[in-house]
Prior knowledge:
The protein is of the alpha/beta class. Helices cover 38% and strands 22% of the residues. The chain has helices at residues 7-12, 24-35, 57-61, 74-79, 90-103, 116-125, 139-154, 178-190, 195-198, 250-263, 273-277; strands at 14-19, 39-45, 83-86, 106-109, 130-133, 161-168, 199-200, 215-221, 227-234, 239-246, 269-271.
Amino acid sequence: MTSTVSAAQTSSAMRLVVTGAGGRMGKALIRAITENPDTVLSGAIVREGSPLIGQDAGEVAGAGKNGIIISADPLPVFAEAQGVLDFTTPASTLVYAALAAQARIVHVIGTTGCSAADEEKIRAAARHATIIKSGNMSLGVNLLSALVEQAARALGPSAFDIEILEMHHKHKVDAPSGTALLLGEAAAQGRDIALTDHSVRVRDGHTGAREDGTIGFATLRGGSVVGDHSVIFAGTSERITLSHQAQDRSVFAQGAVSAALWGQGKKPGLYTMRDVLGL
C-alpha cells in the first residue's frame, strides 16, 4: 500500500514517532498514522542491535515505502516530533517519558505492566509533557470501563461479586493485562474502594469462602488472541456479564493516534482515554 497524503496535508499534519516500531503494535501504529490524513510518521525507534535499524519504516510495517529510516537513537527524532506513540516495556517507557518531557511533546503510553514506582516517574514527567496513558486505547473498552463503574456503583458488594476474566495471546508477558486492571480500577471506583486493598489475583488450594467486596482476576493465555475481557457481576440468583473482544490491533492503534491528536495543544498533565473520549 502506498501513502496518498498530499504535500499540503503533510505540512500541517501532526508529526508522530513510533517506538517499538518493529513489533506487532509498532507496525499497526505506523499503518494507522499513514492512513490518517491528520498525522504523518516522522520517526521510528527500535532497540539497540535490532536488525531493522536502517530499514524503511513504511516497508517494514506493510504501509509502503515512506523514507523514514528506523533508528535506535530517539534524541534527534524526538526533537523534530510533536508526539510519540509508545507501546513498549516499562523500562523503555520511562526513558521515553523523560525525553518527551524534555522535548515538551505529547506522549501516548499504551505500555502495560508498570509498577507503582514506574507510575510515579510517569506522573513526574507529566509536569512537563502532555501524557495520555491507558491500559487500552480502544473506544469500546473505555466505554466498557464507564459501564463497569456505573454497574459497580449500582450493584452492592453484599449482593454481587465482581470477577474479571481476560485472555490474550501466548506471547503476552504481563498479567493481569493492563485492560483488566483498567476495568478493575473502574469497578473499585464505582464502589469507592482501593483496588490494591481488595483485588484477588491468585486462587490455589484451600482458599476458603470468597470475601465480600473483593474483585477477582482470572488470566488465560494462548494462541493468537488479541484481547478478550469480561467483567462478571455474580449475584445469588442472577449474573450480569459485560464483555469486549478485540479482533484486530488496529483498534488500539487508531485510538492511540486519536489520543495524540487530542493531546496536541493541551497543557502538560497526565490524562486517560476517558479524557480523550469525554467519558
